[in-house]
Design a protein that fits this description.
Helix content: 10-25%
Number of strands: 13
Structural class: alpha+beta
CATH architecture of the largest domain: Beta Barrel
Distance between the termini: 50 Å
Largest sheet: 6 strands, antiparallel, barrel
Shape: elongated
Oligomer: single chain
Length: 278
Amino acid sequence: MALFKHIMDLKRAALAKLSDKRKAKRYAVGPMFPLKATIILPDLDQMGRRGKEAKQVESGRDWSGVPVNISESGLSMQLPPAAVSTRGQSTVVALALDGHRIEFPCTVAHFRVHSASAFCGLKLDMKDLNQRKSYLQLVKIVAMGSTFDAVKNPGNVKKGEGQTVEQYKSDHNAVLTVWRDRSTGKVDSFELVMNDDHCVRGVVGRANLEIFSSAKDSEKMAWSVSGFGASAGVENPEVRLLYRWVTFNLPKAIPADVRDAMRLFTVSRADWKAPSRK
């Protein structure tokens, strides 16, 4: 099942690009990104050789690991040092993300054992279109968050008196704009525009994240320039979820206080109350 049904809708042409790309760009999976991975590796005999029963994937054992990076053709993950495998071993990897679980057949591309951990590179083998769609959506989520970098000249971004503005742009269709109090340097608010069609806004001191969806093509770039030109107050759980996942994979190019402010809005805070000013 795809991670999203309505947003990030990938067409067949985009899915066709998911093939054997040895030089496909890898995107870092941050330590706070809630992606978990489990693979099946064959049991070995006491001499370190595969037993006859280990030729079948089902005869192995599950190993839980931490994804390190991901690309359109595969992923790399960190495993416990006791895990052992060899290049060319067929296996299955299961990826779990906030209750979503997807499984893919794959092949071990490389396996290196160090003193404290093992690193396994996996080449995915996906012929099913639904599997491809789910995986490619995951790659786009990771890529969108991990590739943000500072914009030197933000341009004609609207700001209030006593505010400064800074902007960050992702290589994958996302722009983050941050407003700060000029006197204190603290974050006042932020806007994150994703896929041109959706904008989320957080104001420090308020409980909830605001979601705005573009109604017309001419309004898509209006959010950070002349205010909100789209329909305000649109509740979209998929956009909220995308915001959560992107926020938990932001790079160090985004200042720590901005990342902290954005993380405050990754959970529902219906019962939240502003702190007392006394």
